[in-house]
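Attaching the record inline, Q. Sequence:
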Amino acid sequence: MSINIDSGYLYNMRTHHFKNDKSMVLQAKGKLNEKANFSTKVNFPMPSENGAFHFVGKVGELDLTALNEMLIPLGAIEVRSGYNEEVNINFTGNDDYAEGLMEFRYNNLKIDILDRETYQSKGFGNNLKTIFANSFVVSSKNPRWFKLQEGNIFFERIKSRSIFNFWAKSLLSGAVSSIGIKRSKEEAKAYYKENKADMEDIED
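Structure, as predicted:
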């Protein structure tokens, strides 16, 4: 998958020593695979002790098989067919985790569940998983029956990886949730339960 940035801007960039409460803003527009228009805007509130940000984005029409280059290593999922009509993204995050919502409008989606070690779909077990996923778990289109399934974005940051990796995996969590797999919501509940005391301290 290729990403071509037509324009990109960074506003209010400064060091921590410069006293200014205006948010730093990153904006970019371009094309995915030279076809799908995309736009993003990321606000970084200043000052922030925990690396807070607010990510908003939009992606236009796209053949979803173009995402396999990213989906296969990140999620052991391969798109066999599918067409994206529009994606709207809105999530917040910090040094620890990201959460938000995704509106992913698509049709004719079919996927293959891959082996996480070989990234191949061969094998009776993987074939059964694929059949089950396409028949009972994954929604082939969204909206379905005039109802849009919103995807839940949730991902705990891997501190050793870049913020771009963090954003990519956060977006993947929203896409997985949008197609019918509820993993992101379950991970969010588990995270809040495990870190309940810390979350209450932040709120206080």
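The beta strands are 3-11, 24-32, 36-44, 53-59, 62-63, 77-93, 97-113, 150-156. The first strand starts at residue 3 and ends at 11.

More tomorrow.
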